[in-house]
Design goal:
Length: about 350
C-alpha cells in the first residue's frame, strides 16, 4: 500500500442540523480558516452537499487530515439517529474521502467503524470542545452557548468530567439545555412579559426568536443568524421589533418601541437565568469534591458567558483565549468551537507523534 501523505493542514468539521462549521490549522498550529455556513439539513441532504462543496472550494491546498463530528443526525429528515449517522457518513465519504476520521471521544473511527457504532459518534461536538480545553486547563466549567442549545461540561484534573453521554441523558443531567441565542422561539423562554404596566401573555406562535431579541438589544454578533427570520422579512432591528410586537399582540408604533425594547431585555434576562440555573445544577453535582473557579465560554452566544460567570462568581476566560487565538479570530473561534477543537486535537496528536 502507498504510504499515507503527511498532513499539511488539519481540518475539523462540525455537521449540525442548521449549520456546517469548518476550521483549518496549518502545521505550525495556526488557524488559517474558520467558517460557518447555513446548512438546513432538515430540508434534505443536498444542503449538506452544497455546504461541503462551498467549504471545500475555499480550503488551502495540501494533504488534509479531516476529522468530523456531527449533531445533524438528530434532525427530522432521518427516520432515526442511526439512520442519520449512516446517511451523513455517505455524504462525508463522497466529499472528504475514505480517510476521514469520525470523532468518538477518546478515539476517532473510520467511517466503516462509525457506521457500525452510530451511538459512539452521534452528537459529540460538545466533548471535542471540552477535550481541547482539558489539554490546557486542569479544572474548569465549559459553557458553549450556541444558536439552539447550551452545553455545560465540567473539566476536572485535565479530564472531561461529564456524567452523561447521549442527548437524552444530558438533558436529564442538565448538561444540555435547549436554549440558544438565535433559533430558540421566544415562546420557549417565557409565557408572560411586563408590558405597559401589566403582565402580558405571549402568543404561542412562532412570530419571533431569540435572534430578534438580541438584534433589538444590539448584541447579536454579525453573521450569527444565517437562517430566514420567522416571517421571512429582513433580519434587521426594525423588523425584529415588529416580530416581537406580534408576540404581545401588537404592531410597532413610536409609542411602544421603548416597551418592546424592555420586553427584549426581560427575555434576555430570563434566558440567562435559565442558563444560570443549569450551571448551578451541574455545580451541585461536584460540590462535595470540588469548587470550580473558572468558566470557559464558547459558542455564537459567548457574549452571554461573562455575565453568567460574574453572576455566579467565576473567573472568566474565552475558548479563544485558552487557545491563544488572535483577537481578530475570537468571534469565529467561539462560533465554530467544536470544529476548531477537532482541528487542534488532531494537530496536537500529530505533534506528539513526531
Amino acid at each position: 500500500m502507498p504510504k499515507a501523505l503527511t498532513p499539511t493542514i488539519y481540518c475539523g468539521w462540525d455537521i449540525g442540523g442548521a449549520h456546517l462549521k469548518v476550521a483549518v490549522l496549518a502545521t505550525d498550529g495556526q488557524i488559517v480558516t474558520i467558517e460557518q455556513l447555513a446548512c438546513p439539513l432538515w430540508r434534505g441532504l443536498e444542503h449538506l452537499e452544497l455546504a461541503l462543496n462551498s467549504a471545500l472550494s475555499k480550503l488551502p491546498q495540501g494533504a488534509a487530515l479531516h476529522t468530523v463530528t456531527m449533531t445533524g443526525e438528530l434532525c427530522d429528515l432521518f427516520a432515526s439517529r442511526a439512520d442519520g449517522v449512516a446517511r451523513i457518513l455517505e455524504v462525508i465519504e463522497s466529499r472528504l474521502g475514505n480517510g476521514v476520521r469520525i470523532y468518538a471521544g477518546a478515539a476517532t473511527l473510520s467511517t466503516t467503524e462509525a457506521r457500525a457504532q452510530p451511538a459512539a459518534v452521534a452528537s459529540l461536538n460538545w466533548r471535542a470542545t471540552a477535550s481541547c480545553v482539558a489539554v490546557a486547563c486542569r479544572d474548569a466549567l465549559v459553557i458553549d452557548i450556541g444558536s439552539t442549545t447550551t452545553d455545560l461540561i465540567p473539566v476536572l484534573g485535565h479530564q472531561v468530567a461529564a456524567v452523561a453521554h447521549a442527548d437524552g441523558d444530558r438533558l436529564t443531567a442538565g448538561e444540555l439545555v435547549y436554549t440558544g441565542v438565535c433559533r430558540t422561539p421566544v415562546m420557549a423562554v417565557a409565557h408572560h412579559v411586563p408590558y405597559a404596566g401589566v403582565r402580558r401573555a405571549l402568543t404561542a406562535e412562532y412570530f419571533a426568536n431569540m435572534a430578534d431579541v438580541y438584534r433589538i438589544l444590539q448584541e447579536l454578533p454579525a453573521h450569527a443568524d444565517l437562517h430566514p427570520t420567522a416571517d421571512a422579512r429582513p433580519a434587521d432591528r426594525p423588523h425584529s421589533l415588529a416580530r416581537l410586537a406580534r408576540m404581545v399582540g401588537e404592531d410597532t408604533t413610536p409609542a411602544n418601541s421603548v416597551m418592546l425594547i424592555e420586553c427584549a431585555a426581560f427575555l434576555a434576562r430570563r434566558q440567562q437565568t435559565e442558563i444560570e440555573a443549569a450551571v448551578a445544577l451541574v455545580l451541585s453535582r461536584h460540590a462535595s469534591t470540588h469548587r470550580f473557579r473558572r468558566l470557559i465560554g464558547a459558542g455564537v452566544g459567548e457574549f452571554l458567558a461573562p455575565r453568567v460567570a460574574m453572576r455566579l462568581g467565576f473567573e472568566y476566560q474565552s475558548f479563544a483565549a485558552v487557545l491563544d487565538a488572535p483577537p481578530a479570530q475570537a468571534v469565529a473561534v467561539a462560533t465554530c468551537a467544536p470544529a476548531v477543537a477537532l482541528a487542534r486535537l488532531a494537530w496536537q496528536a500529530a505533534r506528539n507523534e513526531r
